Amino acid sequence: VQRLPWIKRQRELLQKADRQSKREMQSGETHYVWGQRYLLDASRTSGRNHVETKGQTLWVVTPAGTDSEAKFAALDRWYRRELKAALPALFEKWQPVLGVRADKIVVRRMKTKWGTCIPGTRTVWINQELAKKNPRCLEYIVVHELMHLLERTHNPRFIELMDRHLPDWRARRDELN
Q: DSSP secondary structure string, 43-59?
């Protein structure tokens, strides 16, 4: 019982801590792409920005003298393109299954959500950070947000529809958090 305040303090500190250490865009850092761990190599230079994965290496090639902020921006744009390239197939797969259609799909970084749906405008927003996660997680978010076109809230009907169409959705959700 006397250790309870200490335990609560430690728990608060852990909850406030960043889950991944700050990225400085230095070679040797760990970065994730589609759930796979890569070591960054930012040592190569070129006249233009280029990002690719080869083996276990994430290459971020930028012009000589590029600072870490600009390297991060190049990587950020690449993650966004990766995600945008993956989305059409998922929407084409799931919209007919669910019998719904999103009129607009927006990819952007969101601080607190993986995705959101605005049923009134049939707009689905997807967090570009999902390009770092296992593709199963992206599929879960797409299905989850499309489901809001059928059911606006997370009520029992919503859960029943998720269970019917994506039985392992809870495991996928837990991978994200």
A: --B-SS-EEEEETTEEE
